[in-house]
Design brief:
A four-stranded mixed beta sheet has the order 7-6-5-8, with helices on both faces. Strands 1-2 form a two-stranded antiparallel sheet. Strands 3-4 form a two-stranded antiparallel sheet. Helix 1 runs parallel beside helix 3 and helix 2 packs antiparallel against helix 3. The mean pLDDT is 81. A hairpin with a 2-residue loop joins strand 5 and strand 6. It is extended, with a radius of gyration of 28 Å. The protein is 43% helix and 13% strand.
Length: 365
């Protein structure tokens, strides 16, 4: 029989042994650590032993990699860089979701990982230990370990939101769009404001991630393999890009835009949309013009804060198409935008934020 007792209370935590002699059993003494599926748990759930173990294992892996070189052929820095990214990082950050979350004490964890990363940087560059850490980090061309963990954490949150609605993890998250009629008894939806302030953990981070990216929708029918509009109606869509560095290409593209504008203005069934978006002082400003038969019918100006330019451009294209299709008998839409990349993103079926705008555009088309 084994016994383990967890507690996150402040101060020293030494649980007493459990005496089962009265029941004919042994006296169970709490263990200091417990290892399960490679995760090392301690009594305070600080995971210090877990971080130490895998940081040392990553350094040992680097030492064994020195066997790959010999006196004739030494590993070049690019090869060491590739080994670090593909092999060492996955070892050092195994199970990082256990200890990397909102309001978690990270000073000790990041201190150990930065020491590990410095030793690996010295191995990659073949430099001396007396060199400054920031200098060798810049020369090695690798991002700091805490930024890499933030990137991995964001991707893990995206994968969690890509799960089907019948997964138990989805029932724990609080949905802002669809309020469950019969929520799980441990759902974040049932927490009070005081409980929200006290609770911490990866699940809470996933729920906050949904607040930042409420338009992540990877399971929409518009992205199904047999329902992609770009494959079903491939001849109905065309993109016109050009080389900005080439004057001849720029002149040719300008003539092409003029011809498209003239053709659209002469036909009652064509709609010409001109969109633009930029960000200044963290405020996104988007503007859209809709012209039908050489007449500006709609001019719209949008303001938003705390969004990136891609979302602003997709939002502008989305509502411009909505406005153009609200007119009867429109058979062709010409969109002139300053970002052909955002226009092509409409037909991208990969999982990425702001998919709700893409799905809405595809459905309207």
């Amino acid at each position: 029989m084994k016994m383990f007792h967890f507690s996150r209370s402040n101060g020293v935590f030494n649980p007493p042994p459990l005496d089962l002699s009265t029941l004919g059993g042994p006296i169970l003494h709490p263990k200091k650590t417990w290892k399960y599926l490679g995760f090392i748990f301690d009594k305070k759930l600080s995971f210090c032993q877990h971080i130490n173990f895998y940081a040392n294992k990553a350094i040992s892996t680097v030492k064994y990699m020195k066997i790959l070189s010999n006196l004739v052929h030494e590993l070049i820095p690019n090869q060491k860089w590739l080994l670090y990214r593909s092999c060492v990082l996955s070892i050092a950050l195994y199970g990082f979701q256990l200890w990397f979350y909102n309001r978690a004490p990270l000073s000790y964890s990041l201190k150990i990982l930065r020491k590990m990363q410095k030793r690996i940087f010295l191995w990659i560059l073949g430099a001396f230990q007396t060199l400054p850490f920031f200098g060798i980090k810049a020369i090695a061309g690798l991002i700091p370990i805490h930024l890499h963990i933030q990137k991995l954490s964001g991707r893990s949150h995206l994968r969690a939101h890509a799960l089907l609605s019948n997964y138990i993890l989805q029932s724990l998250l609080e949905s802002r769009l669809n309020i469950p009629s019969n929520p799980h008894h441990l759902s974040l939806f049932l927490l009070t404001k005081h409980q929200w302030e006290m609770i911490k953990g990866p699940v809470v981070d996933m729920n906050r991630f949904n607040e930042v990216f409420p338009s992540f929708d990877p399971l929409n029918l518009e992205f199904a393999p047999n329902y992609k509009i770009i494959k079903t109606f491939s001849s109905y869509f065309s993109f016109h890009s050009f080389n900005k560095c080439n004057n001849d290409s720029l002149l040719s593209h300008s003539c092409q835009l003029n011809n498209l504008a003239i053709m659209s203005s002469e036909n009652l069934l064509h709609a010409l949309i001109i969109t633009n978006a930029n960000i200044r002082n963290n405020v996104a400003i988007s503007i859209a013009y809709v012209h039908i038969h050489n007449r500006p019918v709609i001019k719209t100006l949008y303001y938003a804060v705390n969004i990136n330019s891609m979302k602003a451009k997709l939002f502008t294209i989305r509502y411009s198409i909505y406005q153009a299709t609200s007119f009867h008998r429109i058979s062709k839409i010409v969109i002139i935008t300053d970002s052909i990349h955002s226009a092509k993103r409409i037909f991208n079926s990969l999982s990425y934020p702001f998919q709700i705008h893409t799905a809405s555009i595809l459905c309207k088309l």
